[in-house]
Amino acid sequence: MTDTFDFVVVGAGSGGCTVAGRLSEDAATSVALLDAGGPCDNWVVTTPGALVLMVAGNVNNWAFNTVPQKGLNGRIGYQPRGKGLGGSSAINAMVYIRGHRSDYDHWASLGNTGWAYADVLPYFKRSENNADFDGKYHGKDGPLFVNKLRSGNPVQQIFLQAAQEGQFRIREDFNTDDHEGLGIYQVTQRNGERWSAARAYVHPHMGKRANLRVVTQAHATRILFDGRRAVGVEYRQGKELMQLRARREVILAAGAFQSPQLLMLSGIGDAAALHGHGIASVHHLPGVGQNLQDHPDFIFGYMSDSPYFSGISLKGMPRLIRAILQYRRERRGPLTSNFAECGGFLKTRPDLDIPDIQLHFGMAMVDDHGRKRHNGTGFSCHVCLLRPKSRGSVALASLDAMQAPLIDPNFLGHEDDLETMVAGFKTTRRLMETPALRALQKKDMFTANVRSDDDIRAVLRERVDTVYHPVGTCKMGTDAMAVVDPALKVHGLEALRVVDASIMPTLIGGNTNAPTIMIGEKAADMIRAEMR
């Protein structure tokens, strides 16, 4: 016998956890939440510093690869994505950023009524429980805890000193009308522990809400239809193929890569492309899997003798032991670090209206997402392009839902992206060459011999990759390539919505976790309004 719920949510990432948690607040509404991973409720997830154990490997991580990237000398890129309750919020660097108000006003200008900044700000506030900031921009009562870091790392002050030496603006709060400047990031933590979307919206209610069923290790294989109406989901759990039925809606929240993959496997997408795979078309929707956008990112890396950085060294072992003891005792110190403790938003040209690059200053020397290890300690500084013009795609590699899709971010595919990254490189290097940061550097690992613009272009093509913000593959809109409408309903179908970062028509200028939680909050509100 197949179980039936009012709503079946596929994917327990930031969007899925949020919409499932909110909908299940009504005891008369039954919700099933499926995820292919595990519960993500152990110390590896809750200890912020343990993110290094997940991002570089396959612990709670899909660890996807891209197709060869033409703009990156044919290199294959790496795309970590969270697998398990909380999704990427269970493995990310916990930076709490919303993007610029103009990002959302732009969405509205594209025909997405109800998605301007004034419309979405209440949902950011509703989700947020901010320990440090208040006022018209912040919430104090939401389930998502947002705090200042508890690492106590003196390098934070050195970074601020460098910002002043480089004549960059200092900013304390990056989530107001204006976010230009450098500073210390707030993080999604509570009492020094990671606060994922699952901890905020799902974990507290498992076993307590009779109307909420959470199914882990459940890999969705296709959406079930009765004509054009979504009526359930087929999923694989172990060796068994099972189904859940939805009375009201199927809500797809599998992320920018797997939401379009599941749609295509279910016969929703470009009919000719699906026919090439032998898939019968349920509905021709050519935008599925198109419009992939991600922030291309370059990392400056330095070895350092400073005792405040992480790395592989015998000298660092006593510090690690002290850090573990301190964390156990008071939930403070190095193990509460998100590594990307500092950063901010800068303009590569003074005539720009808004910042076009973002920095993440890291307390360890990172090479190839931490997959290439170097002996010694050091630090890094990421610079990413906030609004790239390049557009990529997600396509089917096979009919097997258990196989990864073909992911093509098309990094630096548009020549303007490369030139803006050159400007971003120069702006970031100006910060790196301030006296405060030069004093920390023992060895420049990647850019010591980079001098001319051609040198910069070459090192960018050699080393750029993702900073983990893919969006856009089920874009919201009213044009022919839109996949969902402003209510997040899939065009041309019934009882099917998408609620994750794939619905973003354009990439917002910042980290994507908080915006995806906002999308989940707004979706739940829209659904509840229709149920009244």
From TrEMBL:
Boundaries of every Glucose-methanol-choline oxidoreductase N-terminal domain copy: 82-105, 255-269
Cofactor: FAD
NCBIfam families associated with the record: PRK02106.1 (NF002550)
Record-linked SUPFAM superfamilies: FAD-linked reductases, C-terminal domain, FAD/NAD(P)-binding domain
Name of the protein this chain belongs to: Choline dehydrogenase
InterPro entries: FAD/NAD-bd_sf, GMC_OxRdtase, GMC_OxRdtase_N, GMC_OxRtase_C
Similarity remark: Belongs to the GMC oxidoreductase family.
PANTHER family in alphabetical order: CHOLINE DEHYDROGENASE, MITOCHONDRIAL, GLUCOSE-METHANOL-CHOLINE GMC OXIDOREDUCTASE
Record keywords: FAD, Flavoprotein, Oxidoreductase
Key word Oxidoreductase present: yes
EC number: 1.1.99.1
One GO molecular-function entry: choline dehydrogenase activity
